[in-house]
Amino acid sequence: MKPEHSKLAVVGTGVIGAGWATHFLARGFDVTATDPAPGAEQRLRGLVDAGWPAVEALGLADGASRDRLSFTTDVAQAVRDATFIQESGPERLDVKHDLIATIESAAKADVLIASSSSGLSASEIQAGARHPERIVLGHPFNPTHLIPLVEVGGGKLTSAENVAKAIALYTSTGKKAIRIQKEVKGHIANRLQVALWQEAISLVQRGVASVEDIDTAISHGPGLRWALLGPFINLHASGGPGGITHLLQHLGASQREWARDLGKYPETDDYIQQIAQGVDAELAGRDFPGMLRQRDELLVQLIAMKAVKAQIP
Ligand SMILES: NC(=O)c1ccc[n+]([C@@H]2O[C@H](COP(=O)([O-])OP(=O)(O)OC[C@H]3O[C@@H](n4cnc5c(N)ncnc54)[C@H](O)[C@@H]3O)[C@@H](O)[C@H]2O)c1
């Protein structure tokens, strides 16, 4: 589906920008990408080629083609005719501000500018902008051309209408967009991940489990369910006929007690060596690039299978 936003600009073509370019091309859009780094165009085209078999396997939109990718090192030229702009430049506020200023010098005043930033808020990014009301956060997950989630939110000066427009645009491209209702550090999904990593590190430090056992616990345990239904619905399912209300009344007190015993994220870097050694031990004798290749192959199959199961959200 290509409603009003048909010419997309991708600003910054590193890991995330290249993923966005691949995604938007696969959905049939014209994409103009820009990045000042030497060799950026060749690198981008290589990354789009590398990702193409996966997006092809998921199903291309009518007219989707890698030939619809154009590239320029001039940001202003890239955004001049754009109907939507996805910014994925370096994660530095001064660079984002410079980029927004250049984008605004050339883009039409009502065109949405979405930033992929993982750590900066929309309020920080839009500070000083000429038209801050059209600046939103559109935070993807790597690999951006495969993982459907995008977290969308506005800053203090973003209009609610523009947040809704960004959600509609992403949704029309097949993304699963969720709205960040209030700005918080790390947005939503990364905070959930950090909560898990915090306890995983603590369990290793306390000698409760090895790094490998923690990876096994998640990837062969709750992680399998979480990829299909989220943590709350799975909890609801665990409650039997009484659902989540019964479950929390029944087990909530225990969970509260476990929660009181959880670890804190280490304040110094001392933990890194122990965790890295655990990862090395886990990967010993394994083909890590092959492992990642197979992960992505399975990911494509899983996403494709989920798409045809009507009751799976
Ligand atoms: N890597 C991740 O897992 C991840 C996930 C979600 C969001 N993000 C966010 O996406 C953004 C990009 O991250 P990344 O990991 O792709 O970084 P990256 O370093 O791979 O890419 C950044 C790109 O921006 C380019 N660049 C530098 N100056 C520029 C300019 N003036 N105009 C246009 N491009 C410019 C660089 O040449 C580089 O190619 C960041 O804001 C980051 O927080 C990253």
Automatic annotation (TrEMBL):
Keywords from the UniProt entry: Oxidoreductase
Protein name: 3-hydroxyacyl-CoA dehydrogenase NAD-binding domain-containing protein
Ranges where the 3-hydroxyacyl-CoA dehydrogenase C-terminal domain occurs: 186-260
Domain 3-hydroxyacyl-CoA dehydrogenase NAD binding positions: 7-182
InterPro entries the record matches: 3-OHacyl-CoA_DH_NAD-bd, 3HC_DH_C, 6-PGluconate_DH-like_C_sf, 6PGD_dom2, NAD(P)-bd_dom_sf
Highest taxon above the source species: Bacteria
This protein's record includes keyword Aminoacyl-tRNA synthetase: no
Pfam family, one: 3HCDH
